[in-house]
Each structure stands twice: as structure tokens, then as C-alpha cells.
Amino acid sequence: PIILAGDHSTAAGTISGIRKAYPKSKLGVIWVDAHADLHSPYTTPSGNSHGMTVNTLLNNDNKSQSVRTLDDATIQLWDRIKLIKGNAGLPPENLIFVDVRDFESQEAHLVEEAEIAWIKPSGINENGIEACVEKIFDTLSHCNYLYVSFDVDSLDTDIAKATGTPVDGGLKLEQAQKLLEALVSDSRTQCLEITEFNPSLPNPELLLTAIETLLLPIL
User: Which of 50, 48, 47, 36 is nearest to 110 (CA)?
Assistant: First the structure.
């Protein structure tokens, strides 16, 4: 399936669903995004749920980096949200970040602590998309299935204007096209998600055209 979603927090449900469909298999998650989305309610500076999506999949609230004290109701709600995935968390070695470039110190701490793989924009630009794809497949070679989550803010702001949190220095359209075509062509890929397009923001036609350019060769 191809999933077109608004808020990136939906990925917590779709990824959990695929993991439950294949409980004895290893699912690798390729998170193509300007942001790590690794916050928990204990560490978030904004309180936005779409900044916590990846953390809901892990069994690590990152409490050592807390900046908030939570009330009982919030703790109970957070625990319920995390249970969407079941009791087993996504192993950090089954996750790779691609193009993440806007993050807080709490998220960086968790990446380092959990040894999460990360292909930064500088690595993409220096080594090329082909090397990026090779590193993704090498990192997740032990996984039976793959989930590709593509946030449109991974694209550079000359394209991605109609999205909630655009960040300079992202993927060019040609880079993104080569990346998605390579990832979807792998027989292990079970789902492609494209998310965070907001047509109510200025210049939506520019980003919509880019999304169509990314999807048409795949369809």
C-alpha cells in the first residue's frame, strides 16, 4: 500500500500494524524526514505529538533528558499510546534516519545512546544517493520487511513550502525520486508513506506537483 497522511503521528499506527501482521519477522523502518521525531512527553519542548512518533515505537522514554514533569493523566495517556505497538518495542538497529537535520539535544542523546543509524544531508550530498541507498540496505540487511516513511519536509524548502515545519538544506527532487524508486523496488518493502503535505498553506501546487513526480514512476 501507499499511504498519504497529514500528520506524521499516524505512522505509529501503520508501522505497528505491519509489525503485528508479521509478529515473527523483523521490520526495518526507513525514516526520511527533516526531523527525528524522537521526543517523549518528558523531553518535548513543543508538546506536538508528531514530534514523538518514533519514540512511541521504542521502549525508551529518554527520561534522563527530561525537561517536563508530567501529571498522572498525561503519563497514563502516553502509556496507552505506546501500547498501540504492543509490548515489544522497535529494536533501534531496525531503524535508520535519512536527511534528518533539525533536532534537539534530547533527541541527539537518544540517537547516540541507542546507536541509531543516521544518514545526514552532508553524507547524501558528499557521497550521492546511490551510496545512501547502499548504506540503508546494509544497515537493514537483517530485516525481513521494510517500511518507508517519507515526510515531505525532507525536501528542500524551494519545493516543500506547504508543510508545517519546513527546514532548509533538504533533498532535491531528483535525489528524492532516485531514493524512493530504489527503496520501493526492494522486494522487502511492504509500505510507502508520504506525509505532512498541508494544502491550506501557501503554494500548495508546487509541493503537490513534486509529490506526483515522486509517485507516478512508482505507480
Answer: 36
Cell of 153: 519536509
Which positions ≥6 away from 165 have C-beta within 8 Å?
A: 34, 35, 102, 153, 196
Residue 96 corresponds to which cell in the numbers above?
535508520
pLDDT of residue 106: 97
- Three-state secondary structure call for residue 119: strand
Q: Rounded to 5 degrees, what angle do the CA atoms 74, 11, 48 make?
A: 40
3-state DSSP call for residue 190? strand
Classify the phi-psi angles of 133: left when phi > 0, otherwise alpha if psi is within -120 to 50, otherwise beta: alpha
Question: Mean pLDDT by 10-residue block, N- to C-terminus, for the chain (219 residues)?
Answer: 93 94 96 98 93 96 96 96 92 98 97 98 96 98 98 96 95 97 97 96 94 93
**Alpha helices (H) along the chain:** 11-21, 53-57, 72-82, 105-114, 121-127, 129-139, 173-185, 204-215
Q: How many helices (H) and strands (E) does the chain have?
A: 8, 6
Distance in angstroms (rounded) separating the CA atoms of residues 106 and 165 = 19
The shares of helix, strand and coil residues in the chain, as percent rounded to the nearest 5, are 45, 15, 40
Alpha-carbon span 67 to 108, nearest angstrom: 15
From the centroid of its chain, how far is CA 69?
A: 26
